[in-house]
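re: ur question from yesterday

yeah so i grabbed the chain u mentioned. its 320 aa long if i counted rite. heres the sequnce exactly as i have it in my notes:
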Amino acid sequence: MWTRRSVKRRGKNAMKKNYWKTVLVSLILATILGGSSAASGVGSGVSSGAAAAGSSAGSAVNQAQQGQSGDIYEGLFSTDDLQDAGTDTDLSAADGGAEGLVKDEAGVIPDLPDEVLKLMPENIRGVQLSERQRITLLIALGIIILIIIAVAVLLTAFLLNPLEVGIRRFFFMNMREPAQIKEIAYGYDNSYRKNVLVLFLRDLFLVFWTLLLIFPGIIKSYSYRMIPYILADHPEMTRKEVFRLSKQLMHGNKWKTFVLDLSFIGWYILSVLTLGILHVFFVAPYKNMTDAALYERLMYGRKETESVPVAMIAEEDDDE
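ran it thru and got these structure tokens back, copy pasting raw so excuse formatting
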């Protein structure tokens, strides 16, 4: 049986014994996790922008069809069109915003947000796209989004996930004695392909569980929480054994671990107030060492009658 106080005290004491290296490795971990989130954000941002551009272009085409009896203006508004409309305004005098664009007699102007217009070259802000051109543009944007997602997934699977294994090994080894920075390369030097496969499947399963609803994804994230530590501590285990052992270790401990995470909220608030300085130099190392202390406690701190026999793990059914 473990308590929050004992685990946090164990983690803090281990952090103090090897403070600066723990701070550095925690900063590396925060960087790789932040990079993965940023890659996902880029993909969603491009997707939203593509949808907005497609909708706006469609609105402009519909206005043109209604105002010109089925004729769709393609290309730029020429000066001849402007003279026919009875205006002296020159497109080259536009100020770069939506207000600088000139309406023709039917009131047709590109229906795009101001933010999009400002990013476009001045000489193409009045372009009207046909239906086929809009479809081609959306297909091209879709391909770009898929390429960005594929690159992010490959980068995470083959580079960042094995690095996470090495970082978790550093924290776990630091519980016993001051660990060396070279431990973070452990995931590349030992069972690299298995590390890539297991953590890729972990991420994939979490995505599927999260698609069902948010809560199943959260629950499963706690079930799989010890997977990087097991890979770092027992590289001889197979994929199925790693998943099963993680679930066994977290069985009956998910809620207590969730409360353990909540106990750091006060520190996170203080980190925000100090512009992240406190997080870098204290909170992140403290939290990472506490997680390592939790793994140590669950894996090796049980009573003999409650320990998890590794030899029996393969006999259980895998529900993945």
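noticed a couple things. The radius of gyration is 28 Å. also The chain has two domains: 4-37+154-311, 48-140.
anyway ttyl
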